Fold each of these.
Amino acid sequence: MMRTEQDAGDGLSKQRLRAWLRILRATRLIESELRDKLRVGHDSTLPRFDVLATLARYPDGLRMSEVSSHLKVSNGNVTGIVERLVSEGLSERVSVEGDRRAMRVRLTEAGKTRFAAMAAEHEAWVDAILADFDADELDTLISLLSRVKERAKP
Amino acid sequence: MMRTEQDAGDGLSKQRLRAWLRILRATRLIESELRDKLRVGHDSTLPRFDVLATLARYPDGLRMSEVSSHLKVSNGNVTGIVERLVSEGLSERVSVEGDRRAMRVRLTEAGKTRFAAMAAEHEAWVDAILADFDADELDTLISLLSRVKERAKP
DNA sequence: CGCGTAAATTTCAAGCCTAAAGTTTTAGGC
DNA sequence: GCCTAAAACTTTAGGCTTGAAATTTACGCG
């Protein structure tokens, strides 16, 4: 019986590669659209939005390191983004009682207001981009992608 | 009858948002691992690898603008990356006969050799990261994600 | 107490990335 | 043959991102 590409031992490996490239492409497309809309509609950026969204979920604020671990980005990165948010008046740093190394970041009132406006539109944009996916398909997608886990470093 | 979150009109919208966040998280995880391995094992980066991979598929080379449209990144971006690849001796620019505006980029022999080594490992890394997905699941993932399309700008 | 180590963050250098503006060359219309 | 518009790139300014080094503070242990 003939051995097709599909059932060949490394056909699966190639297919995993294709899957990864698809994931990557979907991300690029969606990010690019969201970035455009944030820039045009709110004079803002995706990284700033991501940080605002994280802070919005924690009214008491978060430590710098908590923000970076939530977003899976580096520490130094968050420093810069928060700096810009502070200079825009959207977030503020407060020192942590009892640990003078740490900083807690939280939204200002202006930040909450601004984020609320952005978030509503953001949800609508994503809704439109993924409009032709129904609930079942979304479930499938979510449960499959949830199985992509962080791997321990050797 | 009670209206649950799932069938509520905006439950679907929230679910699309969750799906997008999952896609994003999966991408970040995979990119982060691949970046690490490329840096440690080949002293290179993901963007460079992406460009090399694109060039590798076209023995005669590609125009700058073709590279950027393949990778869905901006024109100016490619200029910089190719510049570094050229300075590393992995790619070269040749002028296009009959159009003095255009440039064709292609791999050098060193570039081909270097890429071949990277590509084999890269495929193995991705294979390992997505190891617990079988062919059916990968098919599902690929076909779902393929439906995320570029949307016309207003 | 004093010392070494770990933790929280910032700083730094290098690279990636985009949008917008600028350069050079080509192509089409009159 | 010009003139204008478009095309192919590059340049630039600003921001994002990382990994590594530096700083400051906390903590455990002898």
Amino acid sequence: MKLLDDDKIIDLAELYKLFGDSTRVKIINILIDKELCVNEIAEGINATQSAVSHQLRLLKQAKLVKYRKEGQAIFYSLADDHVEKIFKIGCEHIEEI
Amino acid sequence: MKLLDDDKIIDLAELYKLFGDSTRVKIINILIDKELCVNEIAEGINATQSAVSHQLRLLKQAKLVKYRKEGQAIFYSLADDHVEKIFKIGCEHIEEI
DNA sequence: TTTATATATGAACAAATATTCATATAAGAA
DNA sequence: TTCTTATATGAATATTTGTTCATATATAAA
């Protein structure tokens, strides 16, 4: 295993940072296997619409979630399998401690 | 996939948070496949001994690294395969964006 | 014992960040 | 158009967090 260069290290840290907040982890968790609109997410995780929207923006920027408009609603879902994979490998780790 | 309860969500976020800082990612990266003492780590990643020591304390608390004393030196290494696994799955993700 | 080396730690400071509140934008319904 | 609903966003605030600096602890060498 070679050392990553600094740019990649920073990218990697930025990626994990997004998983490093409980509101965002809740969002990712609730989006596993389904798509939900912002309000549904907010209700589902007991957070305000604003807080969820702010966090979705970060997840969207990092391409961890994708979205689809339908009327007034905007449905969010996980962007790809990697997101769930990263989530699940973390779960495995905390189960084993 | 069921929703994790709040305690697990918090544990999970705490775990990822540790991967969400470039100094710590560098430490984890440099410890893959070998053990190093604090000074070697500090030199290897261009950080001060103090900064590295502070971060090692966090990694140690979370059991992401283990250590072994030998004379004055303290050799650190990754605690288990999970750490490298989490690291590598993150690498895969950033490679693909 | 004194000196040197390796590591850890507490306090202070600066920077990053999550939430709240108010409000803006956008889309549909009346 | 006006009203309602859904979402986004900017500013302010409070909290968290990483680094630095100084110093403490511990081990080995002289």
